[in-house]
């Protein structure tokens, strides 16, 4: 048995991709539908910049195949503005904003912290302990939203299997064995962020792997050559197969006897100059994989 591998892109509405990744004549409102036929998962960025509505999540869900998965980036208000101080209501608001309306298409939730955010064990403990991992717990927490949502809160969890959480850190103070143990205790994944700007740690802390490839030479811009993609392919195979993966930097103790097949999510975020979709496709090919959407997807989602 092997873990599921989903390689995709971060976001889907980028003007430089039009007439290149997106075919000439494709209308903008069909870009998500097109991208979801090319990749089995996409990371939603719009949720980071502002609170969305349940209708938006419902529309996104309707536009993609049944077996497609969204990773959803949590609001910067939580991670960058309040910096997870008193996180109860902000997290509840996010969960109640319509996130649960994605149902079975809801994949991992990404919590990205800013470069200025230093490791604080007590603060992180309060935050990590709050995160729900089951549908019922998520609905219960979402019900604690404040008046900012009022009548538009969405608390139903039809089809939601579970909630997975991944934390992306960008400050060297997180290179701490105590932090790794903390993530493992709460079953939260540490994002492996490929960049020269921040720590690139590959400690396994949950039952899945979450990678964000930002461009290892120039942030958000540099592409990946064959040698780099071969190296990433080898890492992904090891994670998916349940083998020990030693090609990287680690802050904590080895996983040791808990090695097992894990689902792997990889998102290319080197969006400038049209590199992300191409790099994602090339890595998919190197792994010998091909995304085949669920039957009927093409009939239900007219592109042109």
Identify the CATH architecture: Alpha-Beta Barrel
Number of helices: 11
User: How large, in whole angstroms, is the Cα Rg?
Assistant: 19 Å
Q: In percent, how helical is the residue content?
A: 25-40%
Low-confidence parts lasting 5 or more residues at pLDDT below 50? none
For the record, the CATH class is Alpha Beta
Identify the CATH homologous superfamily. Answer: Protein of unknown function UPF0759
Strand content: 15-25%
What is the fold-level CATH name, i.e. the topology?
TIM Barrel
Overall tally of domains: 1
Shape: globular
**How are the strands of the largest sheet arranged?**
6-5-4-3-2-1-9-8-7
Element order, helices and strands?
A: EHEHHEHHEHHEHEEEHEHH
Mean pLDDT: 92
């Amino acid at each position: 048995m092997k873990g599921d591998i989903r390689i995709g892109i971060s976001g889907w509405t980028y003007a430089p991709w039009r007439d290149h990744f997106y075919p000439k004549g494709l209308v903008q409102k069909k870009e998500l539908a097109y991208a979801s036929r090319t990749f089995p998962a996409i990371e939603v960025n719009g949720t980071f910049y502002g609170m969305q509505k349940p209708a938006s999540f419902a529309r996104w869900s309707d536009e993609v195949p049944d077996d497609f998965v969204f990773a959803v980036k949590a609001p910067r208000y939580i991670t960058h503005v309040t910096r997870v101080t008193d996180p109860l209501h902000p997290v509840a608001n996010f969960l109640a904003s319509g996130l649960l309306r994605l149902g079975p298409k809801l994949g991992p939730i990404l919590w990205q912290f800013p470069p200025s955010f230093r490791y604080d064990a007590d603060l992180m403990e309060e935050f990590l302990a709050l995160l729900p991992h089951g549908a019922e717990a998520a609905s219960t927490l979402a019900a604690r939203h404040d008046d900012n949502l009022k009548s538009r809160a969405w608390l139903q969890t039809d089809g939601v299997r579970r909630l997975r959480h991944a934390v992306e850190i960008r400050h060297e103070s997180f290179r701490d064995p105590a932090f790794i143990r903390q993530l493992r205790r709460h079953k939260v994944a540490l994002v492996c962020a490929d960049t020269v700007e921040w720590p690139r740690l590959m400690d396994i802390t949950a039952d899945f792997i979450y990678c964000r490839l930002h461009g290892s030479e120039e942030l958000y811009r540099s592409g990946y050559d064959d040698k780099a993609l071969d190296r990433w392919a080898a890492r992904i195979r090891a994670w998916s197969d349940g083998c020990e993966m030693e090609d990287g930097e680690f802050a904590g103790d080895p996983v040791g006897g808990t090695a097992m097949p894990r689902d792997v999510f990889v998102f290319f975020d080197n969006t400038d100059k049209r590199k992300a979709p191409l790099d994602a496709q090339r890595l998919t090919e190197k792994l010998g994989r091909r995304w085949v959407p669920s039957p009927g997807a093409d009939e239900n989602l007219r592109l042109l």
